[in-house]
Structures
1.
Amino acid sequence: MYINSIKSLFHERLISHYPVQEINSFFHLLTENYLNKSRLELALEPDLKLDQKDADLFLDALSRLEEEYPIQYIMGHTEFMGRRFKVNKNVLIPRPETEELILWVLNSNSERTELDILDIGTGSGCISISLSKQLSDARVDAMDISEEALRIAAENAKENKAGVNFIQSDILTLKSLSRSYDIIVSNPPYVRKSEKSEMKNNVLKYEPDLALFVEDEDPLIFYRKIGELAFIALNKSGYLFFEINQFLAEDLVKLIKAIGFDSVELKKDIFGSDRMIRALKK
Ligand SMILES: C[S@@+](CC[C@H](N)C(=O)[O-])C[C@H]1O[C@@H](n2cnc3c(N)ncnc32)[C@H](O)[C@@H]1O
């Protein structure tokens, strides 16, 4: 089968699901992934003929894209902070907004060394591994309730040669954190179940509920618990960083201040939504 016929088939069968640009982007990600060919290399070989095995890979991916299965799960990996991370249905696909959170953590601590860091709800390990790579003298712990997620996170740490200590624990039932830290960071579940109707199928149907959703009755449950534990476990001048639900930003600032933190700051993401909070323990 010729590569150009496959490309036409992608457009024909996916046009009712995705914009043209996104279909092109899927196609090029897959050609890089399956054939190790860049967009430019492919343009120079319009008559490239695929053997049956490679053609089947594309056709299988096409069927899954028709079901709106995420491209990152199809390929089995994604890129985050310039590094490759394995992903599967047990972990949230790392988002660009979370890269912004990491940059804020790094900028806030550029003068400090030998930091003790904890990432709560590590998922694929994207936050803990990125921080461990960027801050080579840091000691990094990472926690998640999900054994399957921790398995992927550990594989990602190995692939990226990052030294992270993974801990399986339910943060909501923990009485205290086992040691003290200079930085505690978390991107916990924060989408209210009532927000499901505004979400796209690829997220709703395939990304793990455990990573995404909280009950409408208490949407700040993770922030309250992590905030309280962090206020005790953080060292003097330690920082708590959260990724947040933009619709709950003001409530969250009040909550974090009520716990006792000083200089609680909100930060917007590139889309202009309140997406992060930084709080200082004096
Ligand atoms: C929004 S995802 C964040 C994943 C990753 N840190 C990221 O930024 O892409 C939230 C993570 O919290 C974990 N989680 C959910 N409930 C938890 C609990 N009670 N204790 C610890 N981790 C929990 C989920 O398994 C999931 O990996």
2.
Amino acid sequence: MSRRNLAGLSALLLLVAASAAEAKQWKYAGMHPRTGQPGDGLCHLETTHVHSVAPQYADTLYRTHDNTYVFIGDPTPFGYDGPRHAYYGHHPVVLNVIINIDVDVDEVEYCYHDGPHYHAYEPPPRQEFVDKEEVHYYAGEYPDAYRRDNPKLVRVNTVYRGWNAPRPEVTFAPPPQYHGPIIQVNVGVDVDVRVGSRPPPPSREVIIIREDDDHDHDHHHDNGKHKGHKNKKFKGRD
Ligand SMILES: [Zn+2]
Ligand SMILES: [Zn+2]
């Protein structure tokens, strides 16, 4: 084959390779699970980059900015061992802060993880949080967009349930400033729901706060299984 033909062939192959790659690339920014399987770990590239692997659970674990996928979930199941921050319940996440870009208006999304969980990022600026025993609680109001997306995005909890990753230990009731859902999450706690039966779906109706502010009584701790008397029950969010 002549040198010229060879060059032409190379150029053609490059073109084919380029277009094939272009057709199958997804843009990411910030740390994210490599594949979505916990054993495959995390990609730690901070700046915008591409992979030929589509984001798994993209509709619940990621939000998009400019066609770029930003992972906002709890990185613990994927073997994350960096600095982490403990949160309880649903809270705002500011995408432009996570991926460190300048914008005129914050891009606020919401995390729908029920109960105690971790993030690699600290509570975003310009949002109201209160801390109790080193756990962050969102103390602001939830907007209509949060409510509208709730049925879809709250499924993140179904995704995480099977992974049984460690969660922050929270043994007290949330502070009153927190208006989000209060839901028992029995991961890593000695309960019987995982033995012989599937865990129940997260309840959106019965919300239980364990508070020992009633009069003294013979009440042994049972990790919240005891849902009968002496516990306060709330319906709904407001
Ligand atoms: Zn990556
Ligand atoms: Zn969260």
3.
Amino acid sequence: MTDRPPIDPDETVDLLQELVRIPSPYFEEREIAAFVHDWLDERGLNPAYHHVSEPEITGYEGDNVLARLEGSDPDAPTLLLDAHVDTVRPVEDWEEDPCSGRIEDGRLYGQGACDMKGGLAAVMVAFEALAERDLAGDVLLAAVVDEEGPYGLGTDRLVRDGYADDCDAAIVTEPGPVLARGEIENPALVLGARGRFLYDVTVRGEAAHGSQPERGVNAVVDAGRVADALAGIDVGSHPKLGEGSVCPLLLEGGSQTLSVPERARLMVDRHVVVGETEADARADAEEAIAALDLDSEVEVGFREAPSPDVRYGPYVTDEDHPLVTALRSATRSVAGVDPAIGYFESVGDFNYLGDRADLPTVILGPDGENVHAAGEFVYTDEVVEVAEVVVAAATDFLG
Ligand SMILES: [Zn+2]
């Protein structure tokens, strides 16, 4: 027996199609934010724009859209529903309009269909359905900008302006199993994610005539040795999140003339698990570099960020948290099965909520394929199912 909350599948899929038809690569979300705002406004759900400004590095100006359902009991918990409205920039390999929203065999195609306009449509219709219920706790819906950009500025601003402070837990409807480690399938709850730090290594050698390399210190040669050493760092592991990882992403430098190159630069990705900090990542890198005993001067630096707390730390949500319990029983009642439990390999806005804001955070979202690639699609029945699970779990969790 299943007990399905009142989500209209046609309305949900129509909404998803409209969202996919609005191009919204990160930093260009004005049109889709207005659409989400007006959709909520037409239903009497009192949306408000929440300005996001980052003048220093990106020059970005945009708006999240927020809406709140006030519960009857100020002591009851508050649940945050967070979904990003932006997508990656459409890739070139699409053989059709990346904003087509074409539906075939239960799949809806488009850039961002799975990541994460499916999840956005699901929380919008779930929020509309929750507005019809008498809940003790509050629901805060946050349709945020710039998740796919370099700093996740929309959710960063949400956290920075204190919106997470009065929340007790968060649901993020990012695509689920497709981005999780291991083989899991929907229905699934993703209860944590690794963290990620990006750092630069600058290598300064000493120039000399290129015909006499022994008279200089070759920064390119040393940078290659550094890349090799960093890739071999002994990283941490965690019972749920698995192993950390190190991946040198970029190596540049050198000389166009016949000179021993005096400068090179490496950019390195480090994924970490719970228990590893930015300071640990730096110490590991510095130790590996020191062990090489190079003649070049080598320095490790972390990338420029809008502020020092803009970082993707790792987190794990307790499997016994009341929201997880509510989501488990909602999944059983809607889908008739227990959800799989998984963890993410990479990072997103959920790290800001789960780590920075210290909110118990659960990811559950409709699955699809080709995320961030040509031919991206989402399964429409999973979009509807996620909306139903969110309504049932929120009703249970908020009392
Ligand atoms: Zn996403």
